[in-house]
Design goal:
The complex is a heterodimer of chains A (about 230) and B (about 450). Chain A contains eight helices and ten strands. Chain A has about 230 residues and is α/β, with parallel strands linked by helices. Chain A starts with a strand and ends with a helix.
Chain lengths: ~230, ~450
């Protein structure tokens, strides 16, 4: 379970102060598939970065699987992120000079699995996203849809409890996007909690629940479900 | 983290291949800096090596200030580097040291036994019997001569391995006769190759010159009136003509060494030297303030200035050049590592802590440093060859000095790696400190 209570986050420059999240509260249960929607600047990505332990917050309480993360050090946050969270990026963020196999291997290396265990997990994950025969390819040799599938395989290989997806279909055509979304639904049905940030209302409808954000706050319609 | 060592090495190799030009520039910058620095370090290292480490603290070079009251020797920078005949004989005959040797150089012409062979000149060291055991001279055949042969001024000779090879074809020539400058000498010993570097036992004749070709009892210089070839300095004119006037003069031309095995022996000998000099002052000699010394090998080499100042200046300049090269490398590393901000952000998202990434990029910097070190070794070798080419007339001595040995090779590579790691700390810290979220979306 992921819970945020009264989270605040402010970005400051010399001249401007931006309140990205203001008393933001949200609870996401095990097995949920939540779409976070809202206009640009509403705080969606900031929420996702904080949820993914990539960014700190100024105030409030954030618990991941019952563990408060506010006081954790970088190494502890990295370990937690590696074990419990998988990321899917809009731009795929595959490392260009590593093969697909080696890209999926990255989080497993940091987990400290032995070679045999890594190989098994990588091959399982690639089979699961339909890229079993492409493991030796470089990212540049794959289509956009295939690259995103490789990104999903990389996120899945560590068997995370939470999958955080930031505009996962933003760089794909509609056919490829549909395929990726089918895959996410399938992954969710198998028990992985998915939190997806999107602009696309059609995409949001495929989620079990939609959280609308505006000006760093959850919109009133969702307040009832908030923690 | 250790589990990631092989992974980090693999990534480092991949990253170097991915940016070959940038990597090559860094390797070149480090290599050139290390190469130049190591050339100079090697020269200084060879100059400062202890030539006789097993005995350098017990062998003492004897000096007495016998110079003029009006002007000091060497403008006051050091005491006279040799002693007079009178002082050498007096100190030797007192036998106050465990071992003692007086010596000077001479030049003789060898007349080879074969009728068709032409005579040739050899550099000769005239010395006393203790020379060989004092300086641990390695013998191939036979031994040095005895004190009795010294006193009797016997015509005996110890040959260098090279001279024995030239005259006797390398055979055991002990007992055979060698004719030099019209007199017959009985060969009593043949030395192994022996070229202490620097040639500490004679500070007047070139620190990196070859050892002499032949060694004869010192008394022969007087009894046979052999032609001297060493350095002679006088501060007042001779009183009369001929050898006896020279021997009675204040001219310095003899090096005197003593072996003092411990602090007590050294203190005792220093007292003896002072007492001797005081007696001489009472006799109207040695007008300058009392100053006598018995100095061990290493400080003696430093005092005699056997390490050229130019070498030390060049070393300083080369270290500064290395620093400039490393500063360039910092800029290149910064460009390289910050260019990978998206990859760093991705790896952070996938579970790499700052520490893990820091280690990864340090491995890459270390690998670049290793390559720079290997290149630097090659350039240092080229540099030393270039220096050697500047001294064609002293090829043998220069060959001995300008050698990049295993110690220096290890130092070169280690220095390159350490320098690269130090250089990489700031760029790596900057790269690992980026906010991953800022780069994951902006790709």
């Amino acid at each position: 379970m992921l819970t945020m209570h009264n989270i605040t986050k402010t970005f400051r420059t010399v001249t401007v102060q931006t309140n990205a999240l203001r008393d933001f509260s949200l609870r996401i249960d095990e097995g949920d598939f939540v779409a976070i929607t809202g206009p640009s600047g509403s705080g969606k990505t900031t929420f996702l970065n904080i949820a993914g332990l990539l960014e700190t917050f100024d105030g409030g309480i954030y618990e991941l699987d019952g563990q408060s993360v506010a006081q954790l050090k970088d190494a502890q946050l990295s370990k937690l992120r590696n074990e419990k969270i998988g990321f899917i990026f809009q731009n795929f963020n595959l490392i260009p000079d590593l093969s697909i196999f080696d890209n999926v291997d990255v989080p497993l290396r940091y987990r400290g699995f032995n070679a045999a265990e890594r190989k098994r997990r990588i091959e399982d994950a690639l089979q699961r996203v339909g890229l079993g025969g492409r493991k030796d390819h470089l990212p540049s040799q794959l289509s956009g849809g295939q690259q995103q599938r490789a990104g999903i395989a990389r996120a899945l290989a560590g068997e995370p409890r939470f999958l955080l997806a930031d505009e996962p279909t933003g760089n794909l055509d509609s056919q490829m996007a549909a395929g990726v979304l089918d895959l996410l639904e399938e992954i969710n049905q198998q028990g992985t909690t998915i939190i997806m940030v999107t602009h696309d209302p059609e995409l949001a409808k495929r989620a079990k629940r939609e959280v609308k954000m505006r000006d760093g706050l959850v919109q009133p319609a969702e307040k009832m479900q908030a923690a | 983290m250790i589990k990631l060592a092989d992974y980090n090495l693999k990534l480092a190799l991949k990253n170097i291949r991915r940016t070959p030009v940038l990597s090559a520039l860094m390797v070149a910058a480090i290599g050139i800096g290390i190469g130049m620095c190591m050339s100079m370090v090697t020269v200084n290292y060879r100059f400062s090596l202890d030539p006789i480490p097993q005995k350098s603290d017990v062998l003492h070079f004897v000096q007495i200030d016998t110079w003029s009251a009006d002007f000091p020797f060497n403008e006051g920078e050091s005491l006279p580097n040799q002693v007079t005949y009178r002082d050498a004989k007096a100190l030797m005959s007192a036998k106050k040291a465990h071992r003692q040797a007086m010596m000077s150089r001479a030049a003789l012409a060898v007349e080879p036994p074969g009728r068709d062979e032409r005579p040739f000149f050899v550099e000769v060291r005239a010395t006393t019997a203790d020379f060989f055991p004092m300086f641990d001279v390695p013998m191939l055949y036979g031994s040095g001569w005895t004190e009795a042969e010294d006193i009797a001024a016997e015509q005996v000779v110890v040959l260098s391995a090279e001279t024995n090879e030239r005259v006797f074809g390398g055979e055991d020539s002990v007992g055979r006769t060698l004719r030099m400058s019209g007199a017959d000498y009985r060969v009593v010993g043949v030395m192994e190759e022996w070229n202490p570097s620097p040639r500490f036992y004679d500070p007047t004749g070139g620190a990196f010159s070859d050892s002499e070709d032949a060694y004869i009892p010192w008394e022969l210089v007087v009894t046979k009136e052999l032609p001297r070839s060493g350095n002679t300095n006088c501060w007042r004119p001779l009183e009369g003509d001929g050898l006896q006037a020279f021997l009675n003069s204040e001219c310095i031309w003899i090096q005197l060494w003593v072996e003092l095995r411990n602090a007590d022996e050294r203190a005792e000998y220093e007292d003896f030297l002072d007492a001797y000099a005081t007696t001489q002052k009472d006799l109207g000699r040695m007008p300058r303030p009392l100053d006598t010394r018995a100095t061990p090998v290493t400080p003696m080499l430093q005092e005699m200035g056997l390490i050229p100042e130019e070498a030390q200046v060049l070393l300083g300049l080369s270290v500064m050049f290395l620093v400039v090269c490393l500063l360039n490398t910092i800029g290149l590393l910064l460009a390289k590592f910050l260019g990978k901000a998206t990859e760093i952000g991705t790896r952070r998202a996938l579970g790499a802590s700052r520490g893990v990434l820091f280690q990864q990029y340090l491995v890459e910097a270390g690998l670049i440093g290793f390559c720079g070190g290997i290149l630097g070794l090659g350039l240092a070798w080229l540099g030393l060859e270039g220096i050697k080419a500047q001294f064609p007339s002293e090829q043998d001595a220069v060959e001995r000095v300008m050698v990049l040995d295993w110690n220096m090779a290890f130092v070169a590579v280690a220095l390159a790696i350490v320098a690269s790691l130090v250089t990489a700390i700031y760029p790596t810290w900057r790269a690992c400190s980026i906010q991953p979220a800022a780069y994951l979306k902006a790709n």
